[in-house]
Hints:
The chain has three helices and 17 strands. By secondary structure, the protein is mainly β. Strands 1, 2, 3, 4 and 5 form a five-stranded antiparallel β-sheet that branches. Strands 6, 7, 8, 9 and 10 form a five-stranded antiparallel β-sheet that branches. The longest helix has 7 residues, at 13-19. It is globular and about 60 Å long.
Amino acid sequence: MFYTSLAGYQADAPNFNSTLFINTPITAATDGSVYFGFRTQGTAPAPLNTNQSGFARIDSSGNGTYVLASTAAKDAAIGRDSHNSAPALSADETTVYIVVKPPANNDYGGYLLGLDAATLANKYSVFLRDPHNNNPGGILEPSTASAMVAPDGDVYLGIFENPYNGSRGFLLRFSNDLSTEKTPGAFGWDYTPGIVPSSMVPSYTGGSSYLLFAKYNNYAIGDGASTHPLWTWRTTVSSFLRRTVTSTGGIWL
């Protein structure tokens, strides 16, 4: 239990049960610690006393800690975690990447954060923007996109476009400290890409050690693709990750 003792919970269980919900997948570290996001419905009882979302860590001994979304972001305009978005750990498990956004009825203007995996203190932060016009990007409630840490340490995250571009969105890519934004993908708001060793794709002849397994989020059609993290694909508005293999139906492996 991350917010009170067992006795504290039992003393006010009906109110905790009706106001506090885990709303993300649970991510586990090799030391047995687990991480997840939570939401409140109304105002959660003491000691939380909040209507904000937040993120929790419970270690292998059952000791819990949490941070509220606005505190994690260092921005009072933030109030929610991203529904269904799993926390992602860096390879050395010292950083946990999470997504936060404004309170209800506003899905634009959020952040990708890197928190200290032990204390949940803010280490890194980047405001999420549509890469072709710099407008605040969308972090929609129906989205299933989570941050993904690649073998080279880069962090990928899908966001929704602003304005609408056919429900494709974008796949953003950042350095591990979130200080450098790299070439984005021209689709991506509703999935988390997978890693494919480039050796598994015989037709690939480029220089990257890995490819991204992805699907196009244009819901008018269904198709899938792998993308090369080093190549770019020119469009009329920007440069985006280039497709290397494409398959209708969403699966090519």
